[in-house]
Structure formats: C-alpha cells, structure tokens
Request: fold
Amino acid sequence: MSQWVAGRICGKRCWTEKLVSLQVEAEVAPFVAGQFTRLALDLDGERVARPYSFVNPPQERPLEFYFVVVPDGRLTPHLERLEPGDHLWVARQGSGFFVLQEVPDGRELWCLSTGTGMGVFLSILRTPEPWARFERVILVHGVRYARELTYGDILADIGRQHPGRFVMIPMVSREETDFALPGRIPGAIENGSLEERAGVQLAPERSQVMICGNPDMVRDTRAVLERRGLRRHRRQAPGHITTENYWRSA
Ligand SMILES: Cc1cc2nc3c(=O)[nH]c(=O)nc-3n(C[C@H](O)[C@H](O)[C@H](O)COP(=O)(O)OP(=O)(O)OC[C@H]3O[C@@H](n4cnc5c(N)ncnc54)[C@H](O)[C@@H]3O)c2cc1C
Ligand SMILES: NC(=O)c1ccc[n+]([C@@H]2O[C@H](COP(=O)([O-])OP(=O)(O)OC[C@H]3O[C@@H](n4cnc5c(N)ncnc54)[C@H](OP(=O)(O)O)[C@@H]3O)[C@@H](O)[C@H]2O)c1
Reply:
C-alpha cells in the first residue's frame, strides 16, 4: 500500500498574507490528536514533503492544516497557491508523540505556543481527554502582531463548551494592544504576568506543560520552567514538560 493518498482541497482561509489554513479531503488512517502527517507536492519532478500537525480533532472531517508561508521555503509558497478543487499528497499514516497519552496527570494543563504551533492545540482541546483529566486548561498563543491571533471562532467555542475551565491568553510581541500580554512567553513566566493572567501558579506539584512552535521559544521556555523546578517529561522519568519543535534552531 502506498504511503501517500491523494488529497483534495475543499476549503481555504487566508488569515493574513502569510498565514493560511487548508481544509483537505483525504482517506488517511486514524490518528491521535497532537500528531502530524506529511503534505507533499510534486515539484520539478520531485515529491517535496513536510510535516504538518492536524488542526482538526481525529473524529472530525475535513482534515485541516495551518501554516505560515516561509519566504524562500521549498514547499509553503506552493501550498499557498492551492485553491479548492486542487490536489496534494497526504501521508496516509499520522505520527508523533506530542499527544496527551504521553503527558502525566496534573491539575492544570498549560498549552504554550507561538505562531502556527497553536494549531495542534485546536485538535487536542477539541477531544474529551484534556477535560476529563485536568481541572483547567490554559492556552497561550504568542505572535508578533495582533492580526496573527487566529482561530478566534474555534477558541470561543472551546471556551463556551468548558465554562470556567478554559483560559485563553494572547501574547503580542511587536505592537502594543489593550488586551494581549506584551513580550514573549519566557519573560512573562519570569515576571509573573502569565500566571497572574491565568489566575493559577505554574508549579511542579500541579502543572503539566505542553510547548509547541518556534524552537528558540521552546528552548527558552523550558529553561525558565526548569528554574522553577519543572522537569522535561520522559517515559522512564516522568516530569512536567512535553515539547514539539517545528524546525531546528539556527
Ligand atoms: C512535527 C512537525 C510538525 C509541523 N507542523 C507544522 C504546522 O502545523 N504548521 C506549520 O506552519 N509548520 C509546521 N511544521 C514545519 C513544516 O514542516 C515546514 O518546515 C514549514 O512549513 C516550512 O516548509 P518549507 O518547505 O516552505 O520551508 P523550508 O524550505 O523547509 O525552510 C525551513 C525553514 O523555514 C522556517 N520555518 C519552518 N516552519 C516554520 C514555522 N511553522 N513557522 C516559522 N518558520 C518556520 C525555519 O527557519 C526553517 O529552517 C512542522 C514541523 C514538524 C517537524
Ligand atoms: N509574522 C510575520 O509577519 C512575518 C513577516 C516576515 C517573515 N516572517 C517569517 O515567517 C516565519 C514565521 O514567523 P512567525 O511570526 O509565525 O513566527 P516566529 O518568528 O516564531 O514568532 C512568533 C512569536 O514567537 C516569539 N519568539 C521568537 N523567538 C522566541 C524565543 N526565543 N522565546 C520566546 N518567544 C520567541 C516572537 O517574538 P519576537 O517578536 O520578539 O521575535 C513572536 O512573538 C519566520 O520564518 C519569519 O521569518 C513572518
């Protein structure tokens, strides 16, 4: 059986000139929220493939992917040009360990993200598991500019479905707003503003933290959390921090 299935674009949302969501119909194998698949296009006689997290929860169709157009990127400028009715390749099998089954129990689940790293949490938080296992979920989305705070409709729905248990914290680093926390995630943990906004403490005895997005953010956030006594989670040595990098640091 081929590892690739044909996917058909059935919806497209352009949030900004660089941030795009594609909805795709494709017969993929069952996956777990938090996993990714690969999308590919045949370009100049070569199949160019990259990993993308599922934004849709496993039980919902169509599939959805959220990406930033990387200037001079090999694949994303071509993905951006796809329109409803066009085709792309989707890897049949999802993979990855950034899933709640790998996260130990705690009182609060913190989901820390930058840029398109937020998308994976839209899949995870639209399954029953986080709400069965944690008292509260805090989702932080760090972006450069306020217009990059996307998916407000789905986030509002999640809040409505779990009243009093979902805290959404937008962060904007490159312009002033009257609603978002300023700066970056590690700084907001260090100066206490993130916990103040969430109304709960980040502490090893109560917190589980999943971090996804810019690898420098993942590294710097982990370092700040480790200074607070939280440890990286490993199956052999349970801890508090589970991470996913979308690319390698320079
Ligand atoms: C497990 C996993 C899941 C991923 N899921 C997503 C996803 O859901 N959405 C998504 O946009 N990307 C995601 N990525 C990144 C994606 O696979 C590609 O690397 C990205 O779309 C760039 O592809 P490209 O061919 O255009 O750029 P390339 O020619 O491959 O250039 C790669 C460079 O682009 C930059 N870059 C890559 N990804 C990003 C990003 N997300 N934000 C900012 N800069 C980036 C980095 O500088 C990187 O070195 C994921 C990566 C991994 C490993
Ligand atoms: N967003 C745009 O308008 C834009 C424009 C041109 C090109 N691009 C390209 O598009 C790609 C994605 O851009 P993006 O804006 O989605 O993602 P990004 O560069 O990862 O920025 C998202 C957020 O992460 C923060 N961040 C960066 N490094 C961090 C660290 N070490 N610790 C904590 N937070 C950190 C940024 O803060 P800071 O603002 O402080 O860095 C920003 O708030 C990049 O390749 C970028 O070069 C984006």
Remarks:
- The first strand starts at residue 4 and ends at 14.
- Residues 215-227 form the longest helix (13 residues).
- Residues 36, 50-53, 66-68, 70, 73-76, 96, 115-116, 119, 244, 246-247 surround flavin-adenine dinucleotide (ligand 1) (CB under 6 Å).
- The CA atoms of residues 195 and 202 lie 7 Å apart.
